[in-house]
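[[Per-residue structure]]
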Amino acid sequence: MSRQNYIFTSESVSEGHPDKVCDRISDAVLDAFLTQEPEARVAAETFATTNRVVIGGEVGLSDQAVLADYMGRIEDIARDCIRDIGYEQDKFHWQTCEVTNLLHEQSAHIAQGVNGSDIKEEGAGDQGIMFGFATRETPELMPAPIHYAHAILRRLAQARKDGSEPTLRPDAKSQLSVRYEDGKPVGVSSIVLSTQHADSTQTSADIRDIVEPYIREVLPEGWITPQTEWWVNPTGTFVIGGPDGDAGLTGRKIIVDTYGGAAPHGGGAFSGKDPTKVDRSAAYAARYLAKNVVASGLAEKCTIQLSYAIGVSKPLSIYCDTFGTGQVPDAVIEKAVAQTMDLTPRGIRQHLQLNRPIYARTAAYGHFGRAPEADGGFSWEKTDLVAALKNAVT
């Protein structure tokens, strides 16, 4: 039997964290190419350090003239991202940092695995394993520690950008240790928040005075108690932040992006990858399926694993684990998800309508647990498979 009383910790990082700056730029490049051509191929990686951003990887459009034109727009895309995040410091400023574009055309040897002669047999862009997870711990069916760690940083970013807290700066990290009783989250044993700030004379106590009301606003009532430990800017001054303080790289925050360590991860990053890459699209599909399993009442908690081989269209395996909470055997759910959704790479893209410029918004505060949006953003968070899954298991 699994433990029922324990403490579990997850962390999040803000949109101004160096790695998240890079994720944002990579996904903005992807969105730009998908805006031009829904079947564009993109695998964009970004590196950021003091006064410098380097973008490399592979891109592909059917029209080479248009591809050349878009290559000329990469620098402006990067600068727009940095400006929106809020970096205007001496050694990392959206206007003055050096941007180097090393993107090149997609490898023909990679493309051949995806560009099959029969569109129905289009293969996966790579081999790999992908996991999806859902749990009834929050209304969004996400693990509570990562969900609220994200929520804290989103709220602080909002306060920074709307002018409510002018001394806050973009780079920040949060960490929550959540206390569970009888398997349910009931409180927070410790809160860690480190945020970049404007003035070197501001103390940790000063920063706590700024951030504590927002943290209390975000967390469920009663979760903060007199026994909760607070660690706000525990090392003291944090004025130098972002890529000037520490280098950033696309794809280094895969646990922040998913379930905060509460569920397995296949290892593949998301940002900068077009949806032919199953690292991204199949992870979205697995979350979609797991969330619908839980939303349908078939389980209180669910993990779905999918696996693929490069150039092969169908998944090699489908695995379900409901941790003993399933209303039907896990093997029955495995068959049901295969019946209710086409899990080929093209089937996933069509079902979730992934060939759209909806990715820059995913680059910070998690790819999961977000509300589906009118233009198709976060389509994998819908619960529109509930009826189909119930029918498939009866």
